[in-house]
Amino acid sequence: MRPNTERDYHERMLRVLVYIQQHLDEAMPLDELARVAYFSPYHFHRVFRGMVGESVKEHVRRLRLERAAQRLKFGDQPVTRIALDAGYEALESFSRKFRAMFGEAPSRFREIHKSLAYAMVPSGIHFDSEGEPRDFRTYDGGGLNVRIETMDPMWVAFVRRVGPYDEVGSAWQTLMGWAGQRGLLGPHARTLGICHDDPDVTPADKIRYDACLAVGDQVQPAGDIGVQEIGGGEYAVTTHRGPYEKLGETYAILCGQWAPQSGRELRAPSLEFYRNSPMTTAPEGLVTDIHMPLEPR
What we know:
This protein is an alpha+beta fold. It folds into two domains: about 1-110, Homeodomain-like (Arc Repressor Mutant, subunit A, Orthogonal Bundle), CATH 1.10.10.60; about 145-295, Multidrug-efflux Transporter 1 Regulator Bmrr, Chain A (Alpha-Beta Barrel). Helices cover about 40% and strands about 20% of the residues. The chain contains nine helices and eight strands. An eight-stranded antiparallel beta sheet has the order 1-6-8-7-3-4-2-5. The longest helix has 21 residues, at about 1-20. The radius of gyration is 23 Å and the shape is elongated. The relative contact order is 0.15.
């Protein structure tokens, strides 16, 4: 089952890579790309990043710059026209990005007719003038220790925050203040976050996050404090060590590498169990257990 699932993921991702090259001048919303690959919009970006080794935005930007280099080398279009076609309204921005990739300003690159020297990229996918890349290498970002655990249903008190994930502090302050007044913050208190949205897919001002504290089913909602039951079942679990802003990298490997090899399909939303606190722990010492729900077999 696992080889078939991995091959299926590979074929679906290759379909997207071909589609991107054939529509390089179009907007290509992420939900559209997800439909091409038959992935859910929630998981698509993480699967893409985990398998290809760069985000969709980074991938498209790089291919457009590689196409610009080919046009500079073999054509006579003005640099400003090539910059616009690459998605840059300001020539200065285009020149800066082009120099970072190819080591020369666009005009100098054209002048010396430099051979294209593509940087090594994890997937091996570069701009193809026919728009038909034949295959790609799955990115290997390092193995994760992933285990499958069965979790019982859990009641939590929570505060919903809508906005960027790095601005959820106010939700935690409200929840902890309420819990402290009721003596719910003992040494065995379990804190977790429910991450309803992928920040690479959902606009920052629409991201939903629930700051949660495990409680008994007798606790009642009050004001900003809601109560909900988290469903039980099988979860893929891995431990992230380090700053919260690096969590996306672990999600990408879990969704784009472990899932295709495991033969299991991931669901949403994900849970993050916080084993220590950013109030008393340096960012590099933070430990977070990521739980991704699995589709039943």
